[in-house]
Amino acid sequence: MASYINLIKLSVGTESVETLQAWQDSPRPKTPDGLPRHVTRMWPKREAELLNGGSIYWVIKGVIQARQKILRLDEHDHGDGIRRCALVFEPEIIRTEAALKRPFQGWRYLKPEEAPSDLTKARAKEKSLPPQLAAALADIGVR
How many degrees, rounded to 5, is the angle at CA 56 between CA 139 and CA 111? Predict the structure, then answer.
């Protein structure tokens, strides 16, 4: 049994893995040390498991398409005194097999055995499929 856990999160407003990468390459979603991050209201209760090799799996247009290794959790304050969690990631976005995912709010834990596999090195260099095609292929079990 794996000693780590993953997160799954909708990447709202993202059209493709390429647009997720472009957004993360901009200065705004970065930590002071230049790493990509996502700020969330809730602090994960399973922090130790996340930091023991977990990744965040990104749902783009209803399909899990990519993941990033979680490096650390930083406390973040917007100046209102409310403690928030900044999920800090490795810069590399790793493409995964397409897997359908219904909409949900916030983030959820994702067991390693339920996570889609990474694409092979050769397939990872391919451009993302259009979201509707990726969803249709995932729906019929073709990845």
Answer: 70
Question: For residue 124, is pLDDT > 60?
Answer: no
Structure tokens at 125: 């260099």
Mean pLDDT, rounded, for 15-36: 92
Closest CA to 89 of 1, 2, 11: 11
Bridge partners, residue 99, by sequence: 64
What is the rounded CA–CA span in Å between residue 127 and residue 54? 25
Per the prediction, the chain carries an average pLDDT of: 89
Q: Which of 104, 107, 13 is nearest to 57 (CA)?
A: 107
Positive/negative CA dihedral, 51, 42, 59, 110: positive
**CA proximity to 21, closest of 71, 58, 61, 74:** 58
- The model's pTM is 0.85
Q: Where are the beta strands (DSSP E) in 3-124?
A: 6-10, 37-40, 55-60, 63-76, 84-89, 94-100, 107-110
What distance in Å separates the CA atoms of residue 19 and residue 31, rounded to the nearest whole number? 19
